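Weekend entry, working from home. Most of the wet-lab plans are on hold until the incubator is repaired, so I used the time to fold the two sequences that have been sitting in the queue since the last round of cloning. Logging both here for the record. First:
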Amino acid sequence: MHTVEANGAGIPALGLGTWTLKGASCVDLVSRAVEVGYRHIDTAAMYDNEADVGEGIRTAGVPRDDLFVTTKVWWSDLAAGDLRRSAEASLRKLGIDAVDLLLIHWPSPSVPLAETIAALNGVREAGMARNIGVSNFPTTLLSQAIALSAAPLVANQVEHHPYLDQRKVHAACREAGMAMVSYCPLHRGGALFSEAAILQAAARHNSSTSG
């Protein structure tokens, strides 16, 4: 299994995102993904599926330490007390003692970043998160977050695909020793799979672009 080393964290390079998944289908898909070899499972408080993700992980029966579990705190819960309560709620729903990576899902327009980063560090120090990071942070805000954090930030999760160039963010992450974790790497389907380059690659490999 290939991992990305980022400020002390070994992040499995291929992860299962669970946005839009809920209920029995979420449990089943997470369980099957783990069974076939996925080791990085990504969820978030906003997805409202952490309990289902946790059940899927338990159903798969893989030892907890073999998995890398990421969750995120929503932008409305970034004040100090709110962030800690969100982290505690996520752990209860997932049924685990600590996540491998806790991210700020989106920056807040109203809560000072210094307060949020301090609270994020506090959750790590309390043992609820083995690693911490951010999501959807542009380069300027990322630089500020890095400077404010006592512990190293290990990742910035951003949308990244052939239609969205994130070279500046990627360069900033590399310079800081962080991983840039891509979500929607295949766009959202649709037009991307009609591009000539995709169709030609599919033809060369006798494959379909429709899955």
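Second, folded right after the first finished:
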Amino acid sequence: MNKLGLKKIDIYIIKKFLGTYFFAIFLIICIAVVFDFSEKIDDFLENKAPFSKIMIDYYLNFIPYFAVLFAPMFTFIAVIYFTSRMAYNTEIIAILSSGVSFNRILRPYFIAASVIMIFNFLLGNFVIPKANATRFLFEEQYYRDGPSDFKERNAHRQIEPGVYIFLESFNTSNNYGRRFSMEKFSKGQLVSKLLSQDIRWDSTINKWKIKDYFIRDYVGNQQIIRTGKELDTTLNVTPEEFRRRDNAIEAMNLKELNNFIKDQRMQGTSNVLALLVEKNRRFSFPFSTFILTVIGVSVSSRKVRGGIGMHIGIGLLISFSYILFLQFSAQFAISGALPPFVAVWLPNVVFSVVAFIEYRMAPK
């Protein structure tokens, strides 16, 4: 027994668990990189992407994203593989026969699962967002057709409390908008309204230029009307918000994501539910490591017909079922049928029940 109170069997299981987990990640990522490169090589050559940028800016940042994306599958395969080998080598039977309880066997599994959970949580919230930002820039330059354009029409947003803007259309290639209006409210009453045919972002002064404007101010029972040819103004919105990609939230760390959710709530945009799903997923996804570990140990600690292959097949089925269930329930949250917190944590609740059933059936 060492200073941490771990016995040789604990160290043996932890080493096997973590070793198999990271080896599985290495193998799957190698295969994924080969397939991804063969699919995109024509685009890389056509856009003359430097080899150093392909390796460093793209694939070096692609690896952590892919590792966390399929973390449940890697965890399950690792547990299933080495535990089933222990079972078929009668090591599990020998451990149980020596008086060690099944609950005690789970201890090193939970220690290793904790390491994996913390590893994935830190990657998902602090490392991968920065890596995704670099990868997205590479894709826009060498793989996609440049930055995505704003295609939404009739955009209506709250840019700050009580201030709403409306744009009939906006072109991100020249930062030019058509039929712009801005309304200001105070205590629920309209106090000012601005109408303009054209609005353009001036990057030299970082302000909006409003042309041919018409302003109506409401003071008591009176209306004050002002008109003009051009007006420079500062609005709490920039052209970058109009060209933001759908997956831009994947390039935000936890703090940035919380601030973005706050801004989007204030603006009254329709993507707040999707943002809340992403935020809750970053907590629920790593936690699934414990649940899938219990299921994996319970399933693979007993012998079944078909040997290790049968165990691995069951493991793949359950891990893919979890990932599909998570994606399926997330759509209910985005559509408003379920609260985001409930939708994202529902797969963990359901699979916790499965884990409890399997645990009860495990050899004691």
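Plan for Monday: verify the second prediction. The mean pLDDT is 82.
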